[in-house]
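User: Structure tokens for both sequences below?

Assistant:
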Amino acid sequence: MEDTQTIKAEQHKIRKLVYEIDHKVEEHITLSSGEQRRVQKGIAQKVYELESNPEFRSKLFRELHREIKDRFGVASYKDIKRKELQSALSYIENWFPRKVS
């Protein structure tokens, strides 16, 4: 009886550790190269959709990249967490440049 309780207590500890490790891993995994490419394509598609003049596109690219970095708290779009990929793609899809007066 005592051995069963000990085994159950050990199993509980192991499950808790596995959960904690899994959570930490999820918090640190960034985009794969394929996912980074999806973000790049989304950015390009949005900028080309908004601006036909090549002279102004570079400004929009810079602005969108800056806002992505601010929104997701990263130094580069490549550092976006994998779990936030869909959120980033949605953000890009719905993004519009700020109006400056």
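Moving on to the next sequence.
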Amino acid sequence: MLLSRYERMIAKRYLLPGRGEAFIAVVAGFSLVAVMLGVAALIVVMSVMNGFRAELFDKITGLNGHAVIQGYNGQMPNWREVVKQAKATPGITSATPLIEQPLFASYNGRVEFALIRGMTVEDINSNPTLKGKEILGKFANMKPGSEQVAIGSRLAASIGAEIGSEISIINPQGAATPFGTMFRIVKYRVAAIFEVGVYDYDKAFVIMPMEDAQTLLLLGDSVGMVEIETENADKVQDILAPLAPKVRGSGQIVDWRQMNSQLFEALSIDRIVSFVVLSLIIIVASFNIVSSLIMLVRSKTRDIAVLRTMGASRGGLMRIFMTVGTAIGTVGIAAGALLGFVILYFREYVVKFIGLVTGMNVWDPSMRFLTELPAEPDTFEVIGIIVMAFLFSFLATLYPAWKAASTDPVQVLRYE
């Protein structure tokens, strides 16, 4: 929208509050602030939702893979053949034997639910989700037959265990006796305490070498499942389709969508609802721009009539008021984008401040899954938000600008 010199001069004057126009300036200021808050809220919320989904996906698939082949009755005796067939399937990057069993962990009379996870020592040390997540001790200290384990930080806090503590793993499926089945209780020394950042994992996981897990669960040489990693998580079903008939007699394939379908569907719905609700803020701000421009047109009716008699065209007047409204929206958008990125950068301090003011734990890991508030701004999404806000601001200027251009100078100046 190109403006002539006089149009730019008039638009600049109308952007600044004149004598007796304080109320119009206040309304325009509210419009600017509303646009700013709407854009900032959308950027912050959508970035947090993106970060939450990405972080949760990385953590879940990092420990559970893109899919698992679950053995029938929790056992897979021919797991080596299954691993061989999986690795030979195009699109599969790794196939890892795994044992996972819910049991109980006890220390000093405290008993908590525990999810026993048996992995090869090589997989424990190379797993990207576990690597470098030790807060005490080292995964490297665990060796097959050493009777040493690694436990999650929140499980350690719940039972009061520390490095070197001797915890008991309770397996209800023990030896049969004339008096019934006796619990199998095996003691292990804590070699490492880790924190992966997912509350449920840190609260329950007990990781041990696979050979020790086989001994604990009386599995012999069997494993419970084979974890699968693929080249593309979004195409996991297509990649695994050729493998399904080959392992049908050994186990059932379950991909990450099936394992966490409700969680990721809820996140998708929440993301859409949040976007729609927060977009209403920008729409309301656009109505504020309409109101402030209509009041400006009413207060400048005489000026508009004089300009028309001096040769100003209807198109020129429309451009003037469209520029005024669009400038308000543009400044609000720029300020909102800046505010949004500032909030994202200091988001942990913002959460702590809100918690300090309200006296509540705003980000409770037991409810939010993750221990920290994540954020992952998407460039195209941010551009989309800015374009949407600019479009709403521009559309809000059309009616007031048309009203100004439709002013009849004869009718206005007749009574002056």
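User: Anything stand out in the second?

Assistant: Residues 22-64 form the longest helix (43 residues).
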